[in-house]
Every structure is written in C-alpha cells, then in structure tokens.
TrEMBL record:
UniProt region (Disordered), positions on chain: 416-454
Entry keyword annotation includes Transferase: no
Basic and acidic residues compositional bias, start-end: 442-454
BP term (GO), one: lipid A biosynthetic process
InterPro entries according to UniProt: Calcineurin-like_PHP, LpxH-like, Metallo-depent_PP-like
Keyword hit for Transmembrane helix: yes
One Pfam family from the record: Metallophos
Alphabetic keyword roster: Cell inner membrane, Cell membrane, Manganese, Membrane, Metal-binding, Transmembrane, Transmembrane helix
Name of this chain's protein: Phosphoesterase
GO cellular component: membrane
C-alpha cells in the first residue's frame, strides 16, 4: 500500500456499461480492464480509483429485477469482481451511479453487496474529493441531460425518457443481434447521438444485410449517380433544344473501345433513364415530405432535440460549481462518451470518455451511398494529481486492437479511402494555484467526434 502521507492521485474511468441482455453481456474490453486493475493493485502511488457512473448497464438487463441484476453480473464476470476485491484491498475504489445504473442509489443492499468486493458505492449524484489545496467535483453528468435527468435520484420508480429507449431498443437489440449476417445490432448502444440511429441502420443494412447480388447490382448506379444526374440534365437540355450533346464524338470514342465501349454506352443510357425517372418522381415526393414536415412542426409533435448538447450544459454547470465553490479546480464528468478538456473560468472541465466501442461517421468519397460508421476503441483513463502546487490532468489510452479491419467490409473501406478516423485524446492540462489554466497545445481540445463530419 502506498504512503498515505502523499497527495492522492485519482484514476478516473466511466461509462463501462457492463451488462445487458444476451449479446450486450459481452465485455469486449474485459482483458484490458483486468490488466488495468491489476496495475493499480501493485502501484506505489497514493492512488484512488473513481468509477464515475454507468459502470453497469442495469437498464439493459431486463431478465432480472432489483439486486438480482448485480448478482447476475457477479456470476457472469467472476474474474472482474475477484480483481475488484483484490485492487480494492490495496487502494480505495469509489463507485458513483450513473443513469444506466441509477438503481444502485435506490437500494442499500447494493452498498452492502459491493462492499464485499471492496468497492465503496456512494448513493449520490455528485461528490467532492480533495486534491492538494483544491477540490475535484465528480458527477456522471446525466443531470445535465434533459432526457436522462432525475427529479428524485434514488427513487426506483422514476424512469426518464432514456430508460425506455434502453429497455425497449438497446436491450432488444442485444437479444436480436445474432440474427444478423454478423453480430452488429448490439452496437446500437455505441451510436451517439441517437438521431444517427436511422442512418446507422441504413448503413449496416446496405453494407451487411442486403443481398450481395442486389448490393453489387446497385453499386455502379449509386457510385455514378452524380454523373448520371449531369447526363440526365444535359439530355433534357438537348431535348429542349437549349444545348446539343456531342453524341457523335462520344460514340466515336466508345466505339474504339469495342465491347467495353458498348457496355459503357449501355450503362450510361440505363443510368440516365433511371435517374431521369427518379428525378421525375422525387420532385413531387420532396414537396409532399416538406409540407408534411411543416405540418408536424406546427403541431409540435417532434418539438425539441432528442439529445443533449454535447458541451454547453456542462460548461454552464461547471461555472455554477466554480462560483459556489471557488476552491474547485476540476469538474469531472462522463455520460456523453466524448473525452475532452475545456477551460472554464480558469479551471478545467474534464470528460472521461467511455470504454464502449465508438462509431465515427464518414461519408463516402463519391456517389449517394450510405455513410460508413468506423468502429474504434479509446479505453480512456484520466489521471488527476498535483505537481508543484498545480493540479495536473493527464489522459492515458489503454491500447486495444483496431476493430475496423474485422467489422468493416472491403467495400466500406474502399469507399472511404483516406477518410478513416484517427481519434486522439486531449493533451495534459495544468491548473495553477492562481487559477490559471495551461495545456501543451490549446486551452480547449474537443475530440473529433464532435465535428459535423461524423
């Protein structure tokens, strides 16, 4: 055990989401998590481990009720809980509930059961911990999200909107995932924000579930859709007598190519006819859908956003905490799964990311094909410590194999050539004793998943 006279060093992880029905019960990062816990068990630092919410996917467990959910997870992951017990005997482990495991705050039996594995469960939405002469504010972050906010945290009967999405959509996806051509539907829990689920489903249907003969038959038309539209417009101008297509020149070039030229000629004619027909149909369809959208907007059926703004609510919450408690140096949260650091009032707002798979949207290089969702892992550990009187925040990424080679088809990789994501973690942030903030590169580093391109 480390010397207790030293300032504590906090290791923070969040959003593990371990548990769920059937396929959701698979923990892809379990070997890496066990190795990390073993490392903390043998550390010489005055370390503490803080699990900042959503350690367990209890909302996604619908086959058990109450304390039985956690007991089922203990039975499913015996190595994990054995290692928690060993690590917790060496350093303090604190667990804060999130929204997905909010019922941990509802029953004292959870406190007693986790204590058997040397994990201190704090049945609260936030806690404060000392760091040198300053403090750290920890919260999971769901209370800044209107779809997952609790008015009475710890009330087992309160169910925000997010509860229904996870029990009815995410949990069911876990039960159905194996029915696909490969086990992909369970990854719906990694799609953020949830508005992207329809596009993600379309993408996985086209690249994975569609009959291959149909997909590869459509592929040339969709790849050359833009060219086909141009040719259709030129053909329309030719018919109207506005501009004449140099047909003879084009035919002469294609004739020189022999059978290949004939095939290209046939394809271009078919593409123009197909696109022309689609354009004729799409114009009235667009007008009808546009009018329907305006009608829905007038009635307010879909009023408001489905997901919380990724940053602004937390910046405002941090300002409130810093104003009320000037000694606070760090506001640490999770929930949005986006590892970021942001300077706020001379202090720092820290997001601890997630250990779940992350999906990065990438548009194809040409045509009108569905976007590709690149999978990646950023097993993220935040280390908060003191150095020369300053509070220092570092990110550590625990290596895990890139899943894209296994989970993306050759078609997906070719269509996004040069657009594969390279997610990075924020640089070191230093909060000086006088309240100023410094980083190695910038005062604010926002992960690329916040960009509109994803």
């Amino acid at each position: 055990m480390a010397d207790s006279g030293d300032d504590p060093v906090y290791y923070v992880i969040s959003d593990l989401h371990m548990g769920g029905d059937e396929q959701l019960g698979t923990v892809d990062f379990l070997p890496e998590l066990l190795a990390f816990l073993e490392r903390l068990e043998d550390t010489d630092e005055n370390a503490q481990l803080h699990i900042n919410g959503d350690a367990f996917g209890l909302w996604e467990v619908t086959e058990h009720d109450g304390i039985d959910k956690l007991e089922a997870l203990i039975e499913r992951y015996p190595d994990l809980f054995a290692q928690l017990r060993a690590t917790g005997a060496a350093i303090p482990i604190t667990l804060l509930p999130g929204n997905h495991d909010s019922e941990l705050a509802a029953f004292d039996e959870y406190v007693d059961l986790l204590a058997e594995y040397n994990v201190e469960l704090v049945q609260s939405e936030s806690i404060t911990r000392p760091i040198g002469d300053r403090t750290i504010h920890f919260e999971h972050g769901h209370q800044q999200d209107e779809n997952n906010r609790f008015e009475d945290f710890g009330n087992p009967y309160e169910t925000p909107l997010g509860y229904y999405y996870n029990t009815l959509v995410t949990s069911r996806a876990g039960r159905l995932s194996e029915r696909g051509r490969y086990n992909w539907l369970k990854d719906v829990q990694a799609v953020t924000p949830t508005e992207r689920v329809p596009r993600w489903l379309l993408s996985k249907y086209f690249y994975r579930e569609m009959n291959p003969l149909l997909r590869y038959g459509l592929l040339p038309f969709l790849l050359l859709f833009n060219l086909s539209v141009l040719l259709a417009v030129l053909a329309g101008l030719d018919v109207a007598g506005v501009w004449t297509i140099p047909v003879e020149t084009a035919d002469a070039v294609l004739t020189q190519l022999g059978l290949v030229g004939e095939a290209v000629h046939f394809f271009l004619v078919a593409a123009v006819v197909t696109v022309g027909s689609l354009l004729v149909v799409s114009v009235p369809a667009y007008l009808i859908l546009r009018d329907f959208g305006h009608t829905v907007e007038r009635f307010g059926v879909l009023e408001g956003d489905l997901t919380v703004d990724p940053e602004q609510p937390y910046i405002e919450a941090a300002r409130d905490v810093f104003a009320e408690n000037p000694e606070t140096a760090v506001f640490c949260y999770g929930h949005t799964h986006r590892p970021t650091t942001t300077e706020v009032e001379g202090r720092v707002l820290v997001n601890t990311g997630t250990w779940l798979k992350r999906l990065h949207r990438r548009d194809v290089v040409t045509g009108v094909l569905p976007p590709v969702f690149y999978p990646s892992y950023q097993l993220c550990v935040v280390r908060i410590a003191t150095e020369s009187g300053s509070v220092v925040v570092d990110y550590e990424e625990i290596a895990k194999a890139d899943p894209s080679a296994e989970e993306l088809t050759l078609t997906e990789r070719v269509l996004t050539l040069g657009r594969a994501p390279t997610p990075t973690l924020p640089d070191r942030t230093v909060v000086s004793p006088d309240g100023t903030n410094d980083t190695d590169e910038t005062a604010e580093r926002v992960d690329e998943t916040l960009s509109s391109r994803e």
